[in-house]
Amino acid sequence: MDLEKVKIYYRRSIWMNRLAQVSIILQKHILEIIKQEKTSWSELTKTSLKNFLSSSQNSEKSTMEEINEKNNI
Questions:
Q1: What are the residues whose beta carbons fall under 8 Å from the beta carbon of 30, sequence distance 6 or more?
Q2: Which residue from 61, 73, 56 is spatially nearest to 14, judged by alpha carbons?
Q3: Distance spanning both ends of the chain, measured CA to CA
Q4: Residue 32 and residue 52 in contact, taking contact as beta carbons nearer than 8 Å
Q5: Which residues contact 49 (CB under 8 A, 6 or more apart)?
Q6: What are the φ/ψ torsions at residue 71 (nearest 5 degrees)?
Q7: What pTM did the predictor assign?
Q8: Which residue, 14, 21, 47, 70, has fewest beta-carbon neighbours within 10 Å?
Q9: DSSP labels for 17-34?
Q10: Where is the composition biased (Basic and acidic residues) (predicted)?
């Protein structure tokens, strides 16, 4: 395997790892919504998600901070 292929696979693995971390963080936020509203997955609505995101103004920033901390960036 040549060096270029190794670099490509390495970059892909990093991005797949970050994608997995984002997915876990989003699941955590969705579970918070479900707990707060005492609802189920099937009853979760876009409005619930929007309300939650607007109520936590720094959610995007804190999510990115969590990812960066995990990746030591």
A1: 44, 49
A2: 73
A3: 29
A4: yes
A5: 30, 33
A6: -95, 5
A7: 0.52
A8: 47
A9: HHHHHHHHHHHHHHHHHH
A10: 62-73
Number of Cβ within 10 Å of residue 5's Cβ equals: 9
Q: Do 73 and 64 touch, CB atoms closer than 8 A? A: no
* Block residue for tokens 């292929």: 5
Instruction: Give CA–CA dist 55/72, Å, rounded.
Output: 28
What is the C-alpha separation between 35 and 31, in angstroms, rounded? Answer: 6
pLDDT for the residue numbered 25? 86
How many structural domains does the chain have? 1
The pLDDT of residue 20 is 92
| CA atoms of 34 and 27, how far apart (whole Å) | 11
Calpha distance 41→44 (Å, rounded)? 5
The C-alpha angle 24, 16, 21, rounded to 5 degrees, equals: 20
